[in-house]
Amino acid sequence: MNFKLRKIIKKIPKAMKNPRRSIALLLRYISPKDSEIYRIGKWSYGKIPRLSITEVLPGIEKVDITLIRAYDRVIDTSLDIQEIMALSAIVRFTNSKNILEIGTYNGNTALNLAVNSAADALVTTVDLPPDWNGQFELKVHPSHLNVTEKAEVGSQYKNTKYSKKIMQIFSDSAKLDWSKLPIPFDIVFIDGCHSYEYVKKDTQNAMRYLKSGSILIWHDYGFVKDVSKVVDETAKKIKVRAIRGTRLAIGFIE
Q1: Which residues contact 246 (CB under 8 A, 6 or more apart)?
Q2: Torsion sign, CA atoms 147, 192, 248, 185
Q3: Dihedral sign, Cα of residue 148, residue 152, residue 153, residue 157
Q4: Beta strands of 32-121 (E only): which ranges?
Q5: Does one domain contain both 6 and 65?
Q6: Are residues 10 and 83 both part of a single domain?
Q7: Does one domain contain both 67 and 14?
């Protein structure tokens, strides 16, 4: 029997003794004052149990990070605060110096990866070219069309002192020639097109060009069905952990 179900059943006798209080407690869950609970409640896909980041990476709690433009982000599109904190901490904790991001968007993630990595680190970030003709290399469901406006790509890291640590690559990720990138990588962060075929292709390439002992990270695990499906499939091949309170899943390359 499911652990949560057993826990609920055990509480039934106690609830029957004080039904008014039980109803009041129930109402707290079905009529919250903060809509954020509904957003997080949508993180319902995936089979991997969620663990705290300190369980996944013991010792990371001792790491200090710096966030730039922490609140300059779009809900459900950008990484949220907890996620960018976790990603930045992972970079510092692992002392990763060669990082690849697929899906630049406005550059906030690339910026914070650059801020929290060593002075000699390089963050390579990939997004569609400015002259993109609207045709994807692989099949994309209309619900996964998340193309960034040309002027918006990388806008947050441009003209900052950290831009020298960031290399922008323009390409459809399915057409990307990984052999011409600064391989192998310490970390690959996948947050590009969320259609199954793209996430699968990006994952397969990443696993080919990550060094031993490195980390593969996906965004939108639990939130997007196609992403969650690829991550669950990958978890049958390598060790993967989902970070509680985030949409991040981490794969460990041996």
Answers
A1: 53, 80, 82, 83, 86
A2: negative
A3: negative
A4: 50-51, 98-102
A5: no
A6: no
A7: no
Rounded (10°) angle between helices 225-234 and 196-208: 30
Helix 108-115 vs helix 81-94: crossing angle, to nearest 10: 40
**Cα distance between residue 152 and residue 104, in whole Å:** 10
Give pLDDT, residue 58: 98
| E strand spans, 12-135 | 50-51, 98-102, 122-127
- What pLDDT is recorded for position 37? 83
Give the residue numbers spanning the domain of 21: 1-31
**Residue 1 pLDDT:** 46
Q: Can you list the residues of the chain whose pLDDT is less than 70?
A: 1-17, 22-30
Q: Is residue 36 part of a domain?
A: no
